[in-house]
Automatic annotation (TrEMBL):
This is MBL fold metallo-hydrolase. Residues 13-281 form the Metallo-beta-lactamase domain. Signal peptide: none annotated. It comes from Candidatus Acididesulfobacter diazotrophicus. It comes from the Bacteria. Residues 140-159 are annotated as: Disordered.
Amino acid sequence: MKIQSFGAAKTVTGSCHIVKESDVSVMIDCGLFQGKDEESKNSNLGFNPEEIDYLILTHAHLDHCGRIPMLIKGGFKGKIYCTKPTFQLARLIMLDTAKIMLEDYKHNLKRRLRYNPKKTTEENILNSNKSNSAHIKNETHQNNHHNTHNTNESGKNESNTNAELLYNEIDVFESLDHFNPILAYNTPFVIDEKHNIAVEIQDAGHILGSSFVKLTIGDKSAIFSGDLGNKNKPIVNNFSYPDEADAVYIETTYGDRMHKSFADSKVELLNIIQKTINGGGNVLIPSYAMERTQDILYVLKEFYKSGELPKCKIFLDSPLAINITDIFLRNPEYFRKDELQLFTNNNPFEIPYLTETRDIEESKEINKFSEGAIIIAGSGMLTGGRMLHHLKHNLWRKENSIIFIGYQARGTLGRRIVEGDKTIKVFGEHIDVNASVYTINGFSSHADQKELIEWLSALKNQSKTKIYLIHGDDDKMEIFKEKIKPLGFNAYIPSYAEEITVE
């Protein structure tokens, strides 16, 4: 068995791992790279999609599913296996991404043409993209680290006018035909009898329907953690534990630290909200549309029911998050069992103060509220989305607060604000950062260092298991590697496309 990582190798995003044995290849995830320093890698898959026989999708986050349409465009003919919620959520995520990429492409094209008009018209370029939207077949990773890829300070890509779209909505719809969402937790499934390939997934406790994967080909096996969840969150279950395998690939996003407890993080959130609303300000919460938003709504309802939430307006300003919340409500069997009754009897995300805004004009109306509002909108890392407009109207006012509740990748606007930038640029305008900036990491949907070690320690036959660290920044992986060494784990950090032989 040989394994190569074409993403999430010495970086956090872009999850993509290929397992080969004889004449068969199985891929685990096919996600987009995210962050200014990484996005240039998306244009080249680095492998031939025609040579991949099966894809196992651990969950529906963009950095795990975002390049699937490129895989199909490149000639992948196989099936994509996952859980039912993963398929439902990935469908929304990929369609939303295709829409945003097209909008950004048009915006950047017009901007470039104004400065450097050419004979090539927008219409001709867009038409060319319909027939050939990405150079993805038989491409290698050569020079990927040296490609130029500019990102403006609002997080929007400023690609060359001749750059091509990675994919469009039609490509997404074609990819949906390949999904086979039949995987169930703790239920081994043979995907290829001829080559003796079996898959068993267990609950990763990360987001709705998320899983970690044990792939067995013949007498060799490998476990891929996907993303493991932060324990004791209100909606999804705690992660399950692995049994044994010849190789284990484990994420290390927070391999260098421990989170605050979820209970402490709720108290911190409530204190910030009370202080800001009672002080005549607004609270901005840049949030991932999936899981994080639902956690926040759930907690806000808890505050409301206990009488601790100040009277305010709550705006969920994200059509994607609204649609995802609907999918959550259709899949109660994936919730924590101790919360199941609450989900069965009523809508745990429904709050009298809450207004959901789908229409862009409704979103603009929010900015008329100079105080007394909690605004939840994407994107979580401020790489785009409606929250950028709310930053423009709110970030310069000292009465306001902005609360980050998730990981901020290097090169993102969110990361710069968290690291203390005093002025940012949004839609060409410089905005002073006068609002109070908070980071609450207990809402993270990723396991912390202690939880990762707990998960690893459940492995049987540890002395015979090879551990590989993925999904982490270099420095964090090195810290985690040293942390687990005294426990008997001699971990290795694979590089991009490096071939690992599992013996």
